[in-house]
Design brief:
By secondary structure, this protein is mostly helical. Among the domains are: 143 residues, no CATH class; 281 residues, no CATH class. Helix content is 64%, strand content 4%. The protein has a three-stranded antiparallel β-sheet with strand order 5-6-7. The protein has a two-stranded antiparallel ribbon with strand order 1-2. The longest helix has 71 residues. It comes from Thielaviopsis punctulata. InterPro entries: Peroxin-3.
Length: 607
């Protein structure tokens, strides 16, 4: 049996050898194919996880932007409401109306002729509106004792105290329109102080008399402010305040998107580089490996991030003033000639609002791109230290007042990191993409204010569900239905507080629904990786960079080569054209090409 088997193998050893070789080769080939399949599966799985991680980080970043805007907006709103106190002007108009009614009753009781100063909307009021309406509404006050000071006192402000006091006592009964119990009581309290100059030094008496005369002159001027002039101030103040808040909200939304997405991009890159950095935990080494800090290399340290985010203080406390001044000039030109008795249709109102926006933003795309928004969002270099000091983040720190807070940090990499962040932010603000997205945000904000709130509250226009906006009936209603200007002003005055303080904020929600805002954030998050990749001198000794030879014209033609066990490459994936950070055995996709595709569609659709 064994001999027969041996003879069979001897006779067939060549076919047996060939068969064994074929089987071995097949096994090796099968193992190779299975290994490649497993590698491809692991690669796809890691890329899918990396893409999902990137998408999750990006979406979380946008949610952080929303909460940050809502946290910062009340600060700017408080400053704007304090600067333009429209409610104070409304109170003054009510007081003037009450004084006019009281004066009419007093005139009838004395059988004297009616006074032209107490009548509303006279010719003199219209003339005085053109000359005195330049006084800002926030600078107009009406002290309680103003009603007791007659206009004739302004002519006596240069006389001695005793003569002025006697003149006031003689003229007070002759002015029934300003006579009231409170005013008389106020004069009785002031007269003894004026009639006792001999109790003081002559120099002090003269100074006191001059000060009191100036105070009376200012009070008399405020008291003589007519109702028409107050209405003019109310018109400018209410419209300017609402429009300024819309502009501030849009600018704050874009600035926050830029800041947080720049920091999010740097944080993600820092985490990827940290994964590619070799681990020296095994064994004891005399080399100093503690200095290898990818977060410090890419500027994602806490101190730099905090100071960079602090620069939003400029818009909240200084920049909005520039916006308010630009808006006020445009509002005076568009709405200044109107009076409280003017009737406006919705189309006329929309046309005036559009003229204001053209004067503030620019009438053409070229003018809008040239609009200077950078001074409202970021300070000049000489004011950067002031921003950091005023923000309060340096409280409790031992900081030399003469040192530059932007360029003199304890960390050697912090100045360059912060400077690079500020410069990149300024470049983005001055880019055409910024002006394009800002215009869309303002369209959404003014649409929510005018097309919804004013259209429904003042004009009672049908909603889009009730009637198509482009129907002939709707166009007829928009052009024929008119309302008084005060009705529009009341809605704008009320909505000013809603724009800045409501939660949830429907104006901010309307702006966030703009798809171009999401695309703009994606471009900021996924662009300019070349600037983030540092040179070899700034990197840890375990990571070095060299340009690839195969594709030197690639947008990201930078490849880090590590002498250690792990390396990192930044290349373009030829299959999906996405930016890939690759190790020898895997790749991590960090830029989804859909981000850039979305923005390309946005740009092509807007042109």
């Amino acid at each position: 049996m064994l001999e027969a088997t041996r003879r069979w193998f001897q006779r067939n050893r060549t076919p047996v050898a060939v068969g064994v070789g074929v089987l071995g080769a097949g096994y090796v080939a099968a193992q190779y194919v299975v290994g490649k399949i497993n590698d491809a599966r692991e690669r796809l799985s890691s890329e899918r996880v990396a893409k999902e991680n990137l998408r999750r980080r990006f979406e979380q970043n946008q949610e952080d932007c929303t909460f940050t805007v809502m946290a910062l907006l009340p600060t700017a709103t408080q400053n704007i409401l304090e600067a333009m106190n429209t409610e104070s002007i409304t109170y003054q108009i009510q007081r003037v109306k009450g004084v006019s009614r009281a004066g009419s009753v007093a005139t009838l009781s004395t059988a004297g002729p009616p006074s032209l100063a107490d009548t509303a909307l006279t010719e003199d009021d219209g003339k005085s509106m053109n000359s005195e309406s330049g006084v800002h509404a926030s600078q107009t006050t009406l002290p309680p004792q103003d009603q007791s000071i007659p206009p004739a006192e302004s002519a006596d402000k240069g006389k001695p105290n005793a003569e002025s006091a006697s003149t006031n006592k003689a003229e007070t009964p002759a002015e029934p329109n300003h006579a009231s119990g409170e005013a008389a009581g106020g004069d009785k309290l002031q007269i003894p102080q004026i009639q006792e100059p001999e109790a003081q030094d002559s120099g002090q008496a003269a100074a006191q008399a001059a000060a009191e005369a100036r105070a009376r002159s200012a009070a008399a001027k405020a008291a003589r402010k007519t109702k028409r002039q107050l209405w003019a101030d109310l018109t400018i103040s209410s419209i300017t305040r609402a429009f300024t808040l819309v502009y501030t909200l849009a600018l704050l939304t874009l600035l926050t998107r830029i800041q947080l997405n720049l920091l999010g991009r740097r944080s993600y890159l820092s985490s990827v580089v940290a994964l590619a950095t070799p681990n020296f935990s095994s064994g004891i080494s005399l080399e100093n490996n503690d200095d290898i800090d990818s977060s410090a290399v890419y500027g994602s340290d806490f101190d730099t991030n905090r100071k960079y985010l602090t620069f939003s203080w400029w818009l909240l406390n200084r920049g909005w003033v520039v916006v308010m001044q630009r808006v006020e000039i445009a509002v005076r030109q568009a709405f200044g000639p109107l009076s409280p008795r003017d009737m406006l249709s919705f189309d006329q109102l929309a046309e005036r609002v559009l003229s204001v926006r053209k004067m503030v933003e620019g009438a053409t795309p070229d003018e809008r791109r040239k609009a200077q928004w950078l001074p409202t969002l970021l300070p000049r270099r000489e004011n950067e230290d002031e921003v950091i000091r005023e923000s309060g983040i340096m409280n409790g720190a031992n900081q030399d007042p003469s040192a530059s807070l932007v360029g003199d940090f304890s960390s050697p990499t912090s100045p360059a990191s912060l400077r690079r962040l500020l410069d990149e932010t300024a470049d983005i603000i001055e880019s055409p993409s910024f002006s394009h997205v800002l215009t869309l945000l303002l369209d959404s904000g003014f649409g929510a204010l005018i097309e919804k709130k004013v259209a429904l509250g003042a004009y009672d226009l049908p909603t889009p569900d009730q009637m198509r906006p482009d129907s002939p009936e709707m166009r007829e209603i928009r052009s024929s239905r008119v309302v008084l200007l005060p009705k529009i002003l009341s809605i704008l005055t009320r909505e000013a507080r809603v724009i800045g303080n409501s939660m949830p904020n429907e104006y901010h929600q309307a702006m966030e629904e703009i798809p171009e805002l999401q695309a703009f954030a994606a471009v900021v998050y996924s662009s300019n990786w070349e600037a983030e990749i540092q040179t070899a001198d700034d990197l840890p000794p375990s990571v070095s960079f060299s340009a690839p030879v195969n594709n030197p014209q690639s947008p990201l033609a930078i490849m880090p080569r590590s002498p250690a066990s792990r390396s990192l490459s930044v290349v373009r994936d030829e299959e999906d054209e996405s930016v890939v950070m690759a190790e020898p055995e895997q790749s991590i996709v960090i830029v989804d090409p859909a981000f850039e595709n979305v923005w390309e569609k946005v740009r092509s659709g807007g042109q």
